[in-house]
Amino acid sequence: MSPRRLRTADYSQEARDNLGEAVTKAREAAGHKFRPSFARAAKVSVRSLDAVENGEASVGGYVLRAIGRALPNWDEDTPRAILEGATAPPTVAERPEPTYPPELYERELKTETERQIMAVKGERDESKWKIIFALREQAYDKGGRPASPIRQSG
After folding, report:
1. Dihedral of the alpha carbons of 111, 114, 116, 118, in degrees to the nearest 10
2. With 50 as the cut, is the pLDDT of residue 57 above it?
3. 3 state SS of 60
4. CA 4 distance to own-chain centroid
5. Any idea what DSSP says for residue 106?
6. What sign results for the dihedral spanned by CA atoms 62, 67, 68, 69?
7. In sequence order, what E strands does 5-153 have?
8. Residue 131 host element (H or E)
9. Average model confidence (pLDDT) for the chain?
10. Which of 5, 11, 51, 139 has the fewest CB within 10 Å, making it most exposed?
11. CA 153 to CA 139: how far, in whole Å?
């Protein structure tokens, strides 16, 4: 395997087939049921994408890196890693949704910020609650604990 240039020709048929299956699965999970839409998103030709997914030995590094950048949970080095035997990252569909504690969704205003959001005129309450819940989820993700009163500087 060449350390200078990435080419599928430098890898076994089995490695190319594994990459092709992983790309197909990730592409479809990302919402690209058909190759042309993903090829446009990745800025590669449909023929090049077809070659990768079919395990052909004719694909170069530019195409592989572009595909890696275009797939969720991948980066430009993921295709090389898969060719070298690594497991493909989980697809968007396989990625577990975050689980938040139920108290994040209590419809009880907990902070001054939440009270200010609910005081906004011209918006439906349901829209305001969606914003509040999103802020609580964001605070939970950062701190790993239920939302508590947010201290505001100033």
Report:
1. -140
2. yes
3. strand
4. 29
5. -
6. positive
7. none
8. helix 125-143
9. 87
10. 5
11. 16
Half-sphere exposure of 66 (CA within 13 A, CB side): 17
pLDDT of residue 17: 97
Query: Could you give the CA distance from residue 32 to residue 25 in angstroms, rounded to a whole number?
Result: 10
pLDDT at residue 1 in the model? 43
- Average pLDDT (79-94) is 89
| Token pair of 22 as six digits | 């992983």
Which CA distances in Å does 57 have to 12, 77, 87?
9, 18, 20
Per-residue exposure over 53-83, b if at least 16 CB sit within 10 Å of its own CB, e if not:
bebbeebebebbbbbbbbbeebeeebbbbbb
Quick check: helix, strand or coil at residue 7?
Answer: strand
CB distance 67 to 30 below 8 Å: no
Distance of alpha carbon 128 from the chain centroid = 27
DSSP 107: S
Long-range contacts of 105-111 (CB under 8 A, 24+ apart): 105/133, 105/136, 110/147, 110/148, 110/149, 111/147, 111/148, 111/149, 111/150
Per-residue pLDDT band for 13 (boundaries 50, 70, 90) equals very high
